[in-house]
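dumping this here so i dont lose it
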């Protein structure tokens, strides 16, 4: 093989290494500016409740409504398409209360209120949100 072909192959492999691995909410919120406007794969604990459609860092974070360790899922239409797949209704999503991987574009426009950064979802409680959701599946 020619050296230029090998170099191109290695460049392509390196470009895709790690990009498909899901990020944690903690990783994203540690430096949201780095991911703002980019499509990301995020793992978290999914809740589907009235005004609490989000993924949380952990099941416990969801239980205590720890918004600062979560991302609001803003793209309801696309999300419901995935949740209603296989005949499930929006009232009985088959992925609710499970760990999932969500693919969507991160939207981070901070608003500081009393020293806390919020600005997304109902009452602007979430520090960031996922829009243009293109995929959601149970985490393995």
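and the seq i came up w/
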């Amino acid at each position: 093989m020619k050296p230029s072909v090998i170099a191109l192959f290695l460049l392509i492999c390196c470009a895709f290494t790690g990009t498909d691995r899901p990020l944690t909410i903690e990783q994203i919120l540690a430096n949201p500016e780095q991911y703002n406007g980019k499509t990301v794969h995020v793992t978290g604990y999914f809740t589907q409740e009235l005004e609490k459609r989000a993924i949380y860092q952990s099941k416990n974070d969801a239980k205590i409504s720890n918004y600062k360790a979560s991302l609001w899922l803003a793209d309801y239409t696309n999300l419901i398409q995935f949740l209603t797949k296989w005949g499930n209704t929006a009232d009985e999503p088959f992925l609710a209360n499970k760990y999932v991987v969500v693919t969507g574009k991160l939207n981070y426009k901070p608003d500081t209120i009393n020293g806390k950064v919020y600005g997304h979802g109902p009452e602007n409680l979430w520090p960031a949100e996922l829009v243009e959701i293109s995929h959601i599946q149970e985490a393995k």
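The CA atoms of residues 12 and 137 lie 26 Å apart.
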